[in-house]
Every structure is written in C-alpha cells, then in structure tokens.
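Extended Data, record Ribonucleoside-diphosphate reductase
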Amino acid sequence: MKNLSLKNLGKVTYYDLNNEINIPVDNQIPLNKDQEALAAFIQENVQPNTKKFATLQERFDFLIAHNYIEREFIEQYDFSFIEKLYQYLKDQDFHFKSFMAAYKFYAQYALKTDDNEFYLENFIDRVAMNALYFANGNEQLALDLANEIIHQRYQPATPSFLNAGRKRRGELVSCFLIQSTDDMNTIGRTINSALQLSRIGGGVGINLSNLRGAGDPIKGIEGAASGVVPVMKLLEDSFSYSNQLGQRQGAGVVYLSVFHPDIIQFLSAKKENADEKIRLKTLSLGVTVPDKFYELTQKNEDMYLFSPYDVEREYHTPFSYVDITAEYDNMVANDQIHKQKINARELEDEISKLQQESGYPYIVNIDTANRDNPIDGKIVMSNLCSEIMQVQTPATVDNEQHYQQMGIDVSCNLGSTNIVNQMASPDFGHSIEAMVRALTFVTDTSNIDVVPTIQNGNHLSHSIGLGAMGLHSYFAKNHMTYGSKEAVEFTGVYFMLLNYWTLKASNDIARERQETFHNFDKSDYANGSYFDKYLTTDFGPQSDKVKTLFDGIFIPTAADWATLKDNVMKDGLYNQNRLAVAPNGSISYINDTTSSLHPIINRIEERQEKKIGKIYYPAPYLSNDTIPYYQSAYDIDMRKVINIYAAAQEHVDQSLSLTLFMRSTIPEGLYEWKDGRTNKMTTRDLNILRHYAYNKGIKSIYYIRTFTDDQDEIGANQCESCVI
C-alpha cells in the first residue's frame, strides 16, 4: 500500500499531525493533534478508499459472489436478522479513539479488494463477521457477541478476529505446542509438523527435552548422538522456509530441561558470538526448570545433568515425564544413568547472561505448573509466548511415519477481555459467557489434520484461553499506582471473577451437550478439591477503594462457590482449560488500551511502522490527571509487576506472559540489594528476580527486556502470531 492508502492519494496530513504529538506546546503534550490526525485519516484515507454499496444485501451479494466471505455461515441466518444486527451495531455509534487504533485496523485487519484498491469493510463490518461466524446460527448469541465486541469488552485473538467469515483465510487459532520423543521417526515427524504448522500460521512451541544428549549411544555405539542443537538448526531452517508465502517469518520456540546434558550448548546457540554452524538467529529458546534447580542454586551446590537416553531406559517413560525433583537423588545414585556434574549457580549465571544479551531464554517453572494443574496428566512445556500450559502425552511413530501411539498436543484458542470496558459491562457474567461460547466455537471447528496429535488434543480437551488487556490503563484511569496494594488486590478480584464465570459457562455447555472434556472424571474439578480454597478464603474486595471499584458487580460468596462446585461435580466442564494471558500486541492498539497486564513503556510510544516512518501513540486516557499514574515499566521495581501477575495467577489455570523490564543502568533506590554495589544490571539482579517470581508462584517468565544506555531495546517482543 502506498502511504497506507490503497491508491496514491498524493499529499496527506495525518502523519504530520500525528508526529506533532511529540513536540510539546507550553510544556504540555498536544494530545489534540492525535484527534486531528485521526479525523484526517478517516477523511483522507478511509472514506475515499472504501467501496460503496447501495444496500447491505448488495454488499453481501458482492462479497459472496467474489469469494471474499463464506456463503455457508451467512445462510444460517435470515437476512432480516443480519439487517437487524447491523442496525444495532450502527446505533452503538462506535468511533476509534486514536489515530493508531484506526491506522492499525485498516492496515492489518480490514478486508480489502484483491487488487488492493479498496477497503471492503469498516470496524462494524468486521465485528458483524465475527459475531455471525462465532455464533454459528444462534441469533441471540450473535447479538450478544456483537454487543461485547463493538463495546470492546471482548477482543478475539488476531487470527480469529482477522479470519472470521473470510472465504480465503488462515486458521482461527494462535499457536501450537508439539513434542518429540527420542527416535529418528518422531524427530522427522516433528520437523514435518513444524513446517505444516508454520505454513498455517501461528507460533510453534517444540519440546526437545526427550532427545538424547550429544555423545549418548545410538544402537550401542558410544558417542554417536549429535544432541539437540542440530535438530534446532533443522527446525530454524524449517520456520524460515515455511513462512506463509513470505508474508511473515515463521516463528518457533524450543524448550529444554535445565537438567538436560546439552543445556550449555543449547544456551550457547543463541549467543551473538556463537559459531555460525550452531548459531540460532530466529528460533526462540525456553528452559523448563523444576524446583530442584532452585534448591541447588540457593544452597550453592553442584548439580547433575542426566542422560535422557538412560533415564528413559530406567524409568520406561520419556525424560520430560519423569519428576526430576522427586527422583533427583535416586537418579544421582543410579549407576545405570550417565551424568555430568556442573555448578548450579554457574548455570544460573549463564542463563542470566544470555537474558541480558538476547532476552532469552523464557523460563517455565515446570513443578509450579504441575502442582497447580487440576487436570490428570503432566505439563511438560509451554508455547511461543509462555502462557499456554496444558497436559500432553508423547506419540510413537513407525518406519512408515504412521502413529503407533497417538499423542496429545496443543493448539491455542485465545481471546481477551478489555479490563476498562469489561468493568463497565452491564452484566459481567453474561459478557464472559458470550466470550467462552465464541472461543468454544473456535475449538469445536478447528481441524488441524496435518498434525494429528494437535487435532487429537484439541478434540479431547476443547481447551480455550481467555485473558485480559488494559490493566495499566484501568489503574491510571482510576488513580491507582501500578503495583500498589490496592492494584494487586483489584487484579486478584478481577481474575477470580474471570475464573468463576468461565467455570460457570463451561459447566453450562457441558450440561447442554451432555459432554465433558476427556478424563474429566480424573480431574480435581470432578472430585471437588479444586474448589476448596474458594470455600475457605474470601477472594472478594477487602479495601474500601477496591470495594468501590466493584460496586454493582456480583461477587460470588463461599455459598456461590459451593453451588458451582456441586454443579461441576454433577455435570462436568466442557473446556479442559479456560484462562491464559497472552502478551497482546497490535490488537491492544485497536482496543485503545494498554497491552496485557504489564506497565506501559512510554507515555507517548514511538513505533517504527515499516515503510512509513514513525507513528506516535499516547497512552490511553492520558491527561494531566492520569500522567502521574503512567510510570514506565523500566522505572518500576519488577517485584511489583511480579506481585500483580501472582495475584492473577492464583486464579488462572494456565499461565500469563510475564515480561520483566530492566535498565542496563538501574535507577537509584529501585532495588535495595544494589545499595553499595554497581548501578549496572548484573546477572545477580536477574537471578534474584527469578527466585522472587518462583517463590510467588509464577509459572513462567517470558522475555527479559533491557533498555540500554544507548537507548536501544534488547529482547523486544518478536512474536506477532500469539500476541493476540
């Protein structure tokens, strides 16, 4: 597109107007310039470039006839209902609140003609497509979803929002998790799966912990195995090749246990000075960390790395499925298991050094995840953004690449609440129910047949991941300091409500369909123990400030939780997993809110937009009134961020994408352990924060983002597929 316009419009004014936001007037931010840029964009770009139709019927006839939208889901509705839905949406008088919101929508989400000459839809049209598509013929649900999305209480994930209703579309799901076992057939199948999933779209997480280490025997030949790094190189090349016709870089993350013998080589492959033969340029790294590692580092003891090949022979199960914390001493004492000794703190420092240099690796506290997991089975990894945590089972593949034993892998069906708008919902619970039903439609209709283990896992689990965005916006709007006691309390109550209402909705669906997720009867939901903490602890508002914020919103009592417990034990749950908080991305701009749960980086964000230069985006609700509450993440004690995420994690069955923001020169007084020491960020700082997060019950840490002294950012989010 030229000038973001679909035709060459010549001189436009909106870029210049937007850029004037960055030029103070009388020491004030001229926020009015953003509104002027928005108005100019609509007038100069959107209106002249939107294809006009005489009637709604003519528009739909054109879109169907020219293969822009699917006929089948439209024909589920009487056209008079579609007209009624459109009239309702128009009556809501939706307007974008910022230039960035409108720009992002029309650049990335609006349907365009094949020749790229015209926009074929505005925001109302895209909302209508989503509501009609996800309601699957249910008129009331279509109206409910239209209500939630037009008021921006609910935001479907990018692939869902973008592709709903389109005839030529990608998948509706955001990302995938697969794993390899320790044989060449499965490794080959894993590489093929990575190619196929990257072609479809979305990020791919791959667990390699089960693979034998470098030097392990192959068919009795000692020292024959090459280890995990060559497999990582093959995967990186696969993602580079399978890039959706060049539209996007294929994105993947590989996970490895911190007790795997290749862990040092694994980390070294991401270093800037790594040998080109092993260096990974685009593949992300994640490390699964059991409790035992934290114990050994705290005691400053040596640790043993164990041969996965020997462990699997001794335990008759792949390495990832062995509880290392429980079995560590037995494995050390077992002479049949080859092992090597290193110092635990030295490895911890290596992890922190790499995080300073690149932002990687992500950290998954795997024992924490499994301790809190109410589902029968074992979590062994996460996804590209570290918020998905679901049980998996390994597969075995024969010489003809057929599955001898079908495994269970994971696809991510994501959506997000917009906290500011959701708190203003006329019916909090009804809003959440509509969202759960929309996400359930995605899992019900998703059919990733090119990777049978993904398809199998989705059909068995019906898992979804509803999350949240806009937490810092909500705090600023309500004059709350990020990380304050009241902010932590609010976060806990909000996510308790998400938990309650998603459980209730999933229970209703199970009752309606007389169907539960696979192995429900073996879960902590079925035996009722999951609900015990809600019967004995009051998670409702405690302080006057937070009570006021939730005034008029139903807060379940212990009696309400007891009723829900009885209903779930009786009729089950349809969705195995319900909640997860993704990092968000461009979609939060369209919602005119801050992304995810983390603090903003700048009050006026400067974004480099490919061909057109810089666009400035003022923080939502920014005013003289809210400026004091919009402190940069780089100037906030990360323990406050961890506390916020821990308050949410208490009620989230999966995980949350927690990014830590550090300056390479630490502001004075931020961390007491820096007193009398260097003010430069060190590995010790990251070690302390990781242990703090672990002790607060955090399941995963996503990127470490470092703001350097020369104004550069290391570890900025590169995952466009999962940042809903």
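Summary. The chain has a mean pLDDT of 93.
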